[in-house]
Amino acid sequence: MTTDMPGPDPVAPHGRVRTSGGTEFGIYVPQIVADYETLSGLARTAERTGFDTLWLFDHLYAPGLPDHPALEAWTTTTALLAETTTLRVGTLVLCNNFRHPVLLGRMATTLDVISRGRLEFGLGSGSIRAEHQQAGLPWGSAAQRSERLGEALEIITRMFASDRTSFRGRHYQVSDMPNWPRPIQQPRPPIHIGGVGPKYTIPLVARYADVWNVPTYGLRDWPALTRVLETECARLGRDPGQIRRSHQAVLAVAPHERDLPELRARIRRRFDAEAFGVDDGYIGTPAMLVDRLGERAQQGISSFVFMTGAKQAAATMELFAAEVMPQL
Predict the structure, then answer these.
(1) E-assigned strands of the chain?
(2) Which of 43, 183, 224, 323 has the lowest tally of Cβ within 10 angstroms?
(3) CA 280 from chain center: how many Å?
(4) How many Å apart are CA 217 and CA 277, to the nearest integer?
(5) What is the per-residue pLDDT across 261-312, written as a single tens digit (0 to 9) for each?
């Protein structure tokens, strides 16, 4: 990859006020719903109960459920931000292959302005080959997708930081592209990069991310992955402390210990894929969750993104906000 002008220096995320003190809590609700009102109601519940963020997925249809209703991510994000006042909304993560980075940079900047600085910006290389093939979109190897993602992040970070952007790479060429007005959040909307791949993902985290989103299974190799990130940051001359750690995992709250067996059985049926890593998630009574979240905070994790289904999300948020948040 060749460039015709230096990119911006890596920067720390926007210093924003958090509703839950030094720890951020987010709710991830896949928008596999037939009506928008369901999601808008959940967004209002999240805002009212003190959650900091709400997250969606970015797929052309519900993964594994092609005949089930599902709403498009970017349109839904825009609508939810328009209906709320303090809640931050984002996608874990936007698929780089769906939108040209210049268009995506303009969209993100515009939405940050419209929402008065409440956009969370997650971007990834794509995860499902079939939807790309069905739509006639480029796929390629993991190395090729990561290279495209790296170029896109370079372009978008420059657009966030500069009035005009030029770039020449293997996949994208941009010439004197203006981006005005600039984002409300300074130095930029927080950039989230998810995954734990040491060869492709973590180098991009070290260079571009404000938040490193670690999936549940990533905690199993946490010390080794942290060392990889620190090594990459040292190579770039970046302080790894500028990158917040976020953990994405299943949440289910049992009002009483006697409710745990039934709750665990239901969650295992709902999140039965190994990638969900239910045993490393957050399933328990309020007291158990306070202890586990405290342990994770000691590991350096300061943001939590809780996965739950749309049907359980409202009740889960209400109970978590009432019984867990006040103790943290």
Answers:
(1) 24-28, 53-56, 88-91, 94-95, 119-124, 164-168, 173-178, 191-194, 211-215, 244-253, 282-284, 301-307
(2) 224
(3) 19
(4) 6
(5) 999 998 888 887 766 778 889 999 999 999 999 999 999 999 999 999 888 8
Q: How many CB atoms lie within 10 A of CB 210?
A: 22
Residue type (1 letter), 239: D
Q: What sign results for the dihedral spanned by CA atoms 325, 119, 127, 157?
A: negative
Q: Does residue 20 surpass a pLDDT of 80?
A: no
- For tokens 């991510």, what's the residue? 73
The answer, yes or no, to whether residue 6 has pLDDT greater than 60, is no
Q: What is the pLDDT of residue 272?
A: 74
| Nearest-5° Cα angle at 198, 197 to 199 | 95
- DSSP letters, 243-298, are SEEEEEEEEEE-SSGGGHHHHHHHHHHHT-SGGG-GGGSEEE-HHHHHHHHHHHHH
Task: Compute φ and ψ for 314, nearest 5 degrees.
Answer: -65, -50
Helix, strand or coil, per DSSP, at residue 208: helix
- Write out the two tokens for 46: 């999240």
Global confidence as pTM: 0.92
β-strand partners of 56: 91
Cα 193 from Cα 3, distance rounded (Å):
22
Tokens representing 217 are 């299974």
Q: How far is the C-alpha of 319 from the C-alpha of 256, rounded, in Å?
A: 11
Signed CA dihedral, 234, 236, 241, 247: sign only:
negative
What DSSP designation does 190 have?
A: P
DSSP character for 96? G
Average pLDDT score over the chain: 91
192-201 pLDDT, tens per residue?
999 999 999 9
Backbone φ and ψ for 112, nearest 5 degrees, come out as -65, -40
